[in-house]
Write a structure and sequence with these properties.
208 residues; alpha+beta; 12% strand; globular
């Protein structure tokens, strides 16, 4: 599959839609990708399960995927690199202006725990040897390293295509709302303590 790539463990597969302009396109691409992945897996005697984590498999059963990036992560984090049996649903929403992207991040904070001073912190972490580059950061939302987008990373993989489309729609709506707010200078970003955001995220994950 041209739209699929490996993940850190051999039991996981990452698929990516092309750029979509409508939610109908998002849904059609997700259906196509999941069907194609299922067909390829079936030829190998396997089945694809779209879930946030495996329902019964242990981390001890995981095997590291080949590649310098994954080996580097394993050397840095040890067994923690394989013990993270979680898979996420990432949504990219186009924001052409990098400064506007940060302004939107500021306003998204009450909705998703995010990073504000992105570039400076990334540079500090690289200098400290904690990461090689920004792609090694796994925040809930961040300016994309590869594309002129704001990348939402807080969601789990959705078993239902319709729920995945809804998640993409919410991410796009939040971005459009806060782009408009950031462009109105009088609409300042809310000042919310990170401790409050962390507990809010935990409560949402625990209780919905």
């Amino acid at each position: 599959m041209d739209d699929a790539s490996s993940e850190i463990s051999t039991s996981r597969l990452e698929v990516a839609t092309p750029v979509c302009s409508t939610l109908d396109e998002v849904r059609a691409e997700l259906v196509r990708l999941r069907c194609e992945a299922g067909e390829v897996a079936a030829r190998k005697g396997c089945r694809i399960l779209a879930m946030a984590t495996h329902p019964f498999s242990s981390w001890e059963d995981q095997r590291l995927s080949p590649g310098e990036r994954y080996l580097s992560l394993f050397e840095r984090w040890g067994m923690l690199a394989l013990q993270q049996l979680i898979t996420g649903c990432h949504v990219h929403v186009a924001v052409d202006d990098p400064e506007l992207t940060i302004a939107v991040l500021d306003r998204v904070r009450p909705w998703l725990p995010v990073l504000v001073a992105f570039d400076a912190l990334v540079a500090d972490l690289v200098r400290a040897g904690a990461i090689d580059d920004a792609t090694h950061l796994y925040w809930d939302a961040r300016p994309s390293v590869r594309y002129p987008t704001l990348e939402f990373r807080v969601g789990d993989v959705c078993p239902s295509v319709d729920v995945a489309v809804l998640y993409a729609a919410l991410a796009r709506s939040l971005t459009r709302t806060f782009v408009a707010a950031a462009q109105r200078e009088k609409d300042a970003a809310p000042d919310v303590r990170p401790e409050v955001l962390r507990i809010a995220r935990w409560r949402a994950a625990r209780h919905g």
